[in-house]
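hi! just following up on the protien thing from before. the input was this:
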Amino acid sequence: MNYTAEYRSVLGKILLASDGESLTGLWFFGAKHFAAGLGSERQNKELPIFDSARKWLDIYFSGREPGFTPHLRLRGTDFQTEVWNFLRKIPYGQTAAYGGIAKQIAAARGTEQMSARAVGAAVGRNPILIIVPCHRVIGANGSLTGYAAGTDKKAFLLNLEGINLGPNP
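and the predicted 3d structure came back as:
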């Protein structure tokens, strides 16, 4: 069974999802891939994991690094979860480029190269926005590129973390 709850942020409503123990989803209402993989069997319910996620989000939206991560369960292909786990290593207030991530994953796998587009596709399907910080991934030229919830939200989140990319090239 999947459980859901809502969170109201300065950027709009957010849907939280859980399997009862871990956070499995966090999407802005109206975002691309909203509630993807959640299925129709779900129930609104208050759970301790939602309290933990709300606390994390409250701290984050106050402009501070939360210092903890709610228990997450990432559901996707092996490649997607590999990329999403890499995203979790991008420090608060820093960014990484799609191509750089592709090179690092290729090196970890012992292969010569990996497609930045494949990494971009996995980043775009991230089911736990903000906490798994796909907003910290930018184009090689420093551009904001895409974000499932919109580049305006991406720019806000980066600015909140003290990252000012200036005008989008």
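Helices lie at 48-61, 78-87, 98-109, 116-124, 151-160.
The mean pLDDT is 94.
cheers
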